[in-house]
Each structure stands twice: as C-alpha cells, then as structure tokens.
Amino acid sequence: MGLKCSMDERESPEILGMTFWCKAQALRPLFMNEWKYTDFEPEPMPTDNTISHAVERILPYVAESQGYYSGIMLTQEQASLYECNYRYMFWETIDALKNENRCNDKFSGDTYDPVERLSHFCRRFSEVYIYGVGKKGKECYRLIDDKSNLKGFIVSENLKVDEECESYPVYEINEIKNEDDIGIILAMRQEYLTEVYPYLLSLGFRNIERYL
Fold first, then answer.
1. Is 79 helix (H, G, I), strand (E, B) or coil?
2. How do 182-186 and 164-165 pair as beta strands?
3. For the chain, how many helices (H) and strands (E)?
4. Which of 201, 207, 168 is nearest to 184 (CA)?
C-alpha cells in the first residue's frame, strides 16, 4: 500500500478487531486496496497469523501514513487504575532489588526508604489518616515514627466495626473532609487498593500515599 510511517519492533501495535468509528480519509489506503475474498481465511478463522489479524494491527500505521495521530484514550477512572498499578509495581521492584542486595547507592537514599517516605508524607500535612484497619493498616501504623499528625484510621462507608484502632478513632470515608492539609495513606491489599484509590480520586482527594 506504500505507507509512510514509523514502525518500531519494541512497540506493539494497537489491535482493533471490533466495530469502531473512523474518519474515512484516515484509512483510505485500506479501502482502496484491491482485496479479494480469497485473501482472507474462511470461517472458522484461525486465532492468529492471518491477513485479517495483520489488518487489525496495521490500522494505526495507515492513519499515520495519512497524516493522523493515533493513541489510546482513557477515562479518569481507568487512568487512575493505571497510575495505581504502576506505583505498586515500582515500589515492589525497589523492594525486590533491596532484598536481593542488588541496589547501588542510587537506591539507598531516603527517597526509597519506606519509613522515611511515610514520615515525610506525614510531615507534609496537618492531618493524616491511615485507610485500612486490617493487618496492613496496623503494620503501617507501627512503621510511622512520627505520629504527631496522625489523626486516625479510615474505612469505607458502612464498614466500621470498631470505634478505635491502635487507640486512634476510626472514621468512615464520608466523615473526612476533602481539604488541602489532609493526607491519606492507603494500607490494604492490592485487590482493595484498585477499588479504593479511584474512589478517593472521584471524591476529590489528591494527597494520597500507599503503604508497601
């Protein structure tokens, strides 16, 4: 088709095999190509390595050749999940490197020390809350050396069982005001984190740290 576009073997093309809307001019070389029915595998079609699969993967390159940009759009909730997961993987990788003694001086500073990281976060805000009263929440509480700004623990709405945890009051999230001087530390398992983090963002909270 004589496409003029940039291709990189290190970057997988976007696969678009479902019904979608496009601007005809962006994919015109595909429409103008002299396809024949015999070019395509009969049904039931193999799961991969056919010309149909090649067409799926070439769409962004056709659009680029026609002078258009291609990219992926995410909702705020989807983007927050990506951010949350990447942050989790980043700190898990750092911890794994430290445990295997593969770190050099670049990874030995306060920035990568979980105790210092949490303490620094707590010093930034006049009110700090730990979201989670389970094992992770209590581990996080014991790890914080300066608890002067710690005001209590948080649980999700209608999930409060005890009034106190580690002698600190337990609040439901709807009882916490969204203010600039409030920081929240998420201390929970990953499967809960991917639900709670986007929910906090939807409520307008932005001063959020994760306990690892």
1. helix
2. unpaired
3. 6, 6
4. 207
pTM of the entire predicted model = 0.55
* CA-derived radius of gyration, the chain: 25
Domain boundaries, the chain: 1-72, 76-210
DSSP structure string for 50-78:
SHHHHHHHHHHHHHHHTT--------HHH
Residues 6+ apart with CB under 8 A from 87: 210
Beta bridge partners of 153: 130, 170
Token couple for 120: 């620094």
Residue 202 has phi, psi (to 5 degrees) of -65, -25
Question: Which of 118, 211, 129 is closest to 174 using CA atoms?
Answer: 129
* Mean pLDDT split into 10-residue runs, the chain, 212 residues: 75 63 87 90 86 86 88 76 76 71 52 74 94 95 91 95 95 94 92 87 89 78
The separation between the first and the last C-alpha atoms of the chain, rounded to the nearest angstrom, is 51
C-alpha–C-alpha distance, residues 140 and 91, integer Å: 15
C-alpha dihedral (96, 78, 75, 24), degrees to nearest 10: 90
Task: Find residue 210's DSSP bridge partners.
Answer: 186
Looking only at the bridges linking them, the beta strands covering 164-165 and 168-172 are antiparallel
Determine phi and psi for 43, rounding to 5 degrees: -75, 145
Fold of 76-210: Rossmann fold (3.40.50)
What one-character-per-residue DSSP string does 108-127 give? SSGGG-HHHHHHHHHHH-SE
